[in-house]
Amino acid sequence: MRAHHILETMMIFGLLATPAAALTPPKIMVSVSGDSYHMSLKLTLKAPLKRVWNILTDYARIKRLNPNVSQSKLIYRDGQTLLRIRTKSCVLFICFPITQTESLTTSPFTEIQGVVIPRLSSFRSGVSRWRLYPIKGGTRVDFDAVRVPAFYVPPVLGSWIIIRKLTAEMRETAKRLTALAIAKSPHKAKIGQRAGARNATAS
Asked: For the chain, which terminal residue's Cβ has fewer other Cβ atoms within 10 angstroms, N or C?
């Protein structure tokens, strides 16, 4: 009887989750090779593919996914669709104002590809790709990116500190994307440190 009450209490407080509502963290990988930083994110959302797509392509409000963004803007030039994002990223006591301008290519509801325009960016090169897959009960999200900074990274920071910083930022983006995707009204979703954890499962 006592064991039954303990089990019931754990279920009430969410300490035992059913597989359908597992709070397993998303799968995030960040590595460095020479001057290149490689990032990947995989997660599964309990939300329809179209909703996830609409959140990712709401470029005017990218800040909802990354709180470091100060400005995001679409630019149409020479037949290209360019996305310019300005951010301020701080590691320890050093802050970097960063501009990233990518040429976008999209396949509606399934893929967003970006190629960095070096002369308009703080990067010598870079590529990114979001891929969305409809699955039973939701959407699988895969993100991969490579960035080669054009700015000076002080040796005192070290690659491991940059990797930790990028990992933390990607984890926060995953939380925010999840919170928006499962909200009844994405426009009114409460985005916070804990809001995005629910209903995200590792791929």
From this structure: N
Give the rounded distance of the alpha carbon of 58 from its chain centre.
Answer: 14
pLDDT digits (tens, 9 = 90+) for 24-43: 569 999 999 988 999 999 99
Task: Give ∠ CA 57-67-140 in degrees, rounded to 5.
Answer: 45
At the top level of CATH, the class of 21-201 is: alpha beta
Query: Is residue 13 packed enough to be buried (19+ CB in 10 Å), middle (13-18) or exposed (0-12)?
Result: exposed
0.70 cut: is pTM over it? Answer: yes
Helices (H), 27-157: 49-56
Please calculate the CA angle 165-173-31 and round it to the nearest 5 degrees.
40
Tokens 């006592």 locate to 2
